[in-house]
Amino acid sequence: MSRLTHLDDQGNANMVDVSDKQITFREAVAYAEVQMRPDTLALITEGGHKKGDVLAVARIAGIQAAKRTSDLIPLCHPLMLSKVALELVPNGERNVVEITATCKLSGQTGVEMEALTAATVAGLTIYDMCKAVDKEMVISAVKVLAKSGGKSGDWTAEKATC
């Protein structure tokens, strides 16, 4: 079993030292979804929400969150992201908004946490903007779909279970 890297020799949590790691291109893609009632999804897709364009606001919130991940997640490295992109796709068959976040950089550590944070905060923003009309929305299926770069190399989820 591999040793957790956030623990020092005494078993205390610490920030991992990446000083000796090589700078490489790194990318991560994460996913989340927000399940809602059909009328709530229609409100979002038809642009009838009194608070404005829900998906545009969620996209901006996700981008901002990715940039602030180290402020939110203890022991996360502050990173200079070169790209954060969010795709928010309403799926009327399943009554969900599917959120895909992609983060990129050239650096010494990965961007999985930034992508996960972006997808999750975008989902939370959708919930916040729509909770007055649908309190039973569910944010779920939060996961990393793929990552590339770094010492551990490339990884892609075997099968999308979303």
TrEMBL record:
Residues 15-150 form the Molybdopterin cofactor biosynthesis C (MoaC) domain. Pathway: Cofactor biosynthesis; molybdopterin biosynthesis. GO terms for molecular function: cyclic pyranopterin monophosphate synthase activity. It comes from the Bacteria. It catalyses: (8S)-3',8-cyclo-7,8-dihydroguanosine 5'-triphosphate = cyclic pyranopterin phosphate + diphosphate. Gene3D superfamilies: Molybdopterin cofactor biosynthesis C (MoaC) domain. It is an enzyme of class 4 (lyase). The keyword Isomerase does not apply. Pfam families: MoaC (PF01967). Its EC number is 4.6.1.17. The keyword Lyase applies. Keywords: Lyase, Molybdenum cofactor biosynthesis. Signal peptide: none annotated. Belongs to the MoaC family. Catalyzes the conversion of (8S)-3',8-cyclo-7,8-dihydroguanosine 5'-triphosphate to cyclic pyranopterin monophosphate (cPMP). HAMAP family: MoaC_B (MF_01224_B). Homohexamer; trimer of dimers. This is Cyclic pyranopterin monophosphate synthase. The lineage of its organism: Bacteria, Pseudomonadati, Pseudomonadota, Gammaproteobacteria, Oceanospirillales.
